[in-house]
Amino acid sequence: MATIDIPGVEALGDQEETLGTAEDLREEVVLDIMQQEIVGSMVKIEFETSLGLCTGHYLSTELGHEEINLEADSFERLKRLFPTCNGAFVHPANRDWVEVSVAESIGGLPEYKIYSRIVTGGIV
User: What's the domain of life for this entry (predicted)?
Assistant: First the structure.
């Protein structure tokens, strides 16, 4: 296990335990990612369109492709971009993307990369 080198510090002593090691930091990052995908978590997301930021939330499930409950102004933005828009979903194959559902066939569904994702709670 390698320690993090800090230039100009000869001996860290007790601080070494506080700072941790590179492996400790890597484990914390992995745990954060896993925590966001726990079934039953309420997740708030934002994604950016050419008309501005859209915000919504969804309840994480085992099945994937969750429907996103969009805020009213976000849904209006999508309706201006895609007049036949009838909702948005978490992309079934890549959870970092939002898939916009439209009533007409346009050769594929519009997609947006999720700008931010925050776990806000879960089912009790």
Answer: Bacteria
Here the contacts of 88-91 (C-beta below 8 Å, separation 24 or greater) are: 88/54, 88/56, 89/65, 90/58, 90/64, 90/65, 90/66, 91/65
What end-to-end distance do the CA atoms of the chain give, in Å? 39
Please report which confidence band the pLDDT of residue 35 belongs to, taking 50, 70 and 90 as the band edges. very low
Domain range list for the chain: 41-120
Tell me the C-alpha distance between 23 and 11, whole Å: 20
Going through the chain in order, the beta strands assigned E by DSSP cover 41-49, 52-59, 67-70, 85-90, 97-102, 111-122
Number of H-type helices and E-type strands within the chain? 3, 6
